[in-house]
Amino acid sequence: MNGNDRTVLLKLDEVSLSYRSKRTSFEHGQHRVLNRVSLELYEGETLGIIGRNGVGKTTMLQLMAGILAPTEGRVWQMPGKSSSLLTLGLGFKPDISGRDNALLAAMLQGSTQQQAKSYLEDIKAFAELGDSFEEPVKTYSAGMRARLGFTTALMTHVDILLVDEVLSVGDAQFRAKAESAMKERIGGEQTVVFVSHMDGQIENLCDRAILLERGAVAAEGDTARVLKAYRETLKR
Q1: Buried-most residue among 97, 150, 166, 207 (CB within 10 A)?
Q2: pTM for this predicted structure
Q3: Looking at residue 40, which CATH number applies to its domain?
């Protein structure tokens, strides 16, 4: 808990991530993707992370999800809480059907097999996959994989939902439906970290925002103020 009695579900403490590069333009052969990033995610909030392409937004989500380990610093998640990274087809098995992938994904997110099976027809309908739901995922377009991944995460329960640019994919009609569904889920006290380079989505969905610039936090706090700072970076 913090001073305002808000429960912290996830925390990054002075987190940096570097990797070695053969390019001599990087100092000592090291490329630093994130540089001493600290943040707290509170229960029930929707935190937006915005920034230009290549500033480390997706890397930050992968650290939060435990897919990557930081070079320096610490990532902490409250024990007993579950998190899921929703990105384009992450973790999908390409040789099995959308139905079987949705079943596996729901079970990995904590559903029993019976619960997971009960979600499948709703997932099929919302994702608008039709007969393709029974086809191998390797036959899907990027947009179809995004719809399947988004819908599976939406229909199942996870404590912390980490969303990476997924609402930017697909046709305008599905994007509007997905955004509306996400708003409804947020209204039900879902905790979300939402990454996007689209300021309108951050404005519509997020309680608080962080601007990443060159791998570091350049601004954080009130969404409108952070978005103003982001628009300034686009002019530079």
Answers
A1: 150
A2: 0.79
A3: 3.40.50.300
